Amino acid sequence: MKLNKLKIGKIETSGNLLLAPMADVTNLAFRLLCRQNGADITYTEMISADALLNRNRKALLKGLSSPADRPFGIQLVGSSPEKLREAAIFIEDEYKPELIDVNMGCPAKRITGTGCGSALLNSKTAVYEIISEMTAVLKTPVTAKIRILEREEKTLEIARLIERAGASALTVHGRKAKQMYSGSSDLAAIRAVKRELSIPVIANGDIRDEESAEATLDFTGCDGLMIGRAAIGNPFIFKRIKHYLETGEKLEVNRQAQQLEDLKTYVALLEEYNLCSSTNVRMHAHWFTKGLHGSRQIREKINNLKDGKALIELIGNYSQPK
Ligand SMILES: Cc1cc2nc3c(=O)[nH]c(=O)nc-3n(C[C@H](O)[C@H](O)[C@H](O)COP(=O)(O)O)c2cc1C
């Protein structure tokens, strides 16, 4: 039995599997689906602190949370400690998430170009100020998500600062920013951070099946596992990993039937929460139908549909070609 409880600040979950924040992916419907499959904590995609503080925030925050998706974290991205603090106060008041996370790992140019995401890791002062400004005023536990740095000592320095500034947990993606998604996640670097800190450390990067989940937990000794890409179009990954960590046995599943079932539930959840847009459904339908027999036909049909109801009907009536 390797599935442990996870305690971050005052929140405690019976398992330690977290859904990673992912732009355009981890909307409320997708998070609910991952939760139904066993995710213990979910994170929203990154939300810009600047955008949150301007008047258009209503559209940005449409369908952000539901009592069914708890405990969850809202991830903020920004570079100004004051704006991040103000944005965090706003979301704490409005949404009362269990966690507020700061994105210190995104390597995309459009993010680092404005000094946000992994660019923050270049400035120890900025990292410390951001976390300490937030923890000084918020009741909600603050977490941070980083990538590793060029040298281990630099990574540990940043990790220690984040802890000292009052963060309640730290997620480490074991790649450097310049790697983007190439190479593999460095478990030894994650383990070094885990050994250095007293707050919970969550391991992230390349957890894609039962074996990689077990190996990451065993090797790093981390308090939790955060899963990103492997959950896209495949939220069932949480059930598989959870079952394996609890029993040491693998679940037998017809992956194709499961993906189709999950796609139907996903679209139904989008409808229920009034989040159905054709772009969103198309994107996720592509992911969910990956590897499915006849996926080309269903994708073509999906591409030609405009309205959410028709999409639900199409997916509802779809049965795999024999
Ligand atoms: C489509 C996509 C969107 C992402 N968006 C975010 C984001 O908004 N915030 C963040 O901290 N990381 C983001 N990430 C990074 C993931 O959270 C995670 O750190 C990374 O994918 C490594 O984990 P994995 O190997 O399990 O996918 C994103 C990754 C992908 C693939």
Automatic annotation (TrEMBL):
Regions crossing the membrane: none
Catalytic activity field: a 5,6-dihydrouridine in tRNA + NADP(+) = a uridine in tRNA + NADPH + H(+); a 5,6-dihydrouridine in tRNA + NAD(+) = a uridine in tRNA + NADH + H(+)
EC number(s) reported in the record: 1.-.-.-
Pfam families to which the protein is assigned, alphabetical: Dus
Class of enzymatic activity (EC top level): oxidoreductase
GO molecular function: flavin adenine dinucleotide binding; tRNA binding; tRNA dihydrouridine synthase activity
Domain DUS-like FMN-binding: 18-308
Cited InterPro entries: Aldolase_TIM, DUS-like_FMN-bd, DUS_fam, DusB-like, tRNA-dHydroUridine_Synthase_C, tRNA_hU_synthase_CS
Listed cofactors: FMN
Keywords tagged on the record: Flavoprotein, FMN, NADP, Oxidoreductase, RNA-binding, tRNA processing, tRNA-binding
Function: Catalyzes the synthesis of 5,6-dihydrouridine (D), a modified base found in the D-loop of most tRNAs, via the reduction of the C5-C6 double bond in target uridines.
UniProt-recorded name of the protein: tRNA dihydrouridine synthase B
Species assigned in the record: Methanosarcina thermophila (strain ATCC 43570 / DSM 1825 / OCM 12 / VKM B-1830 / TM-1)
